[in-house]
């Protein structure tokens, strides 16, 4: 997949177990990510959630868990209902002595319609920078 991948790396002042919980527990996910009806970190588990584009367009995200290595890696497909394209989101976690380095890669962005600004690499970069660079950090570093 992809010369158009988006990658963001951040280090949080929180243990890897806490960050893993924020990435895999639906009750914690709603605090910084999206409110999911259900989520299980199990390969093959499918989930969906609603999102909104820059100009108010509604999108249903359809995802399927692809890989789970507890406390180390979580990957899932990322597609949109009624829109072509297939991408993969991967969170990799690295224990750095009580801190956690997270590397998020969103690969396959070039498979989405390039004439839709909501599917532009810059749109994903902005969204992930807000989610991983700010909201997840705030969530896991809270006392």
Short description:
By secondary structure, this protein is an alpha+beta fold.
Under CATH, the homologous superfamily reads START domain
Mean pLDDT: 94
Indicate the percent of residues in helices.
Answer: 25-40%
> Which class do the helix and strand fractions yield?
alpha+beta
The CATH class designation is Alpha Beta
Assign an overall shape: globular
Task: Produce the secondary structure layout.
Blueprint: E1 6-12, H1 16-24, H2 26-32, E2 46-52, E3 58-69, E4 73-80, E5 83-96, E6 99-107, H3 121-141
Antiparallel strand pairs: 1-6, 2-3, 3-4, 4-5, 5-6
Protein described:
There is one protein chain. The protein is α+β, with helices and mostly antiparallel strands. It has a single domain (6-141), classed as START domain (Alpha-D-Glucose-1,6-Bisphosphate, Chain A, domain 4). The chain is 26% helix and 40% strand. Strands 1-6-5-4-3-2 form a 6-stranded antiparallel β-sheet, covered by helices on one side. Helix 1 (16-24) packs across helix 2 (26-32). The model has no long low-confidence stretch (mean pLDDT 94).
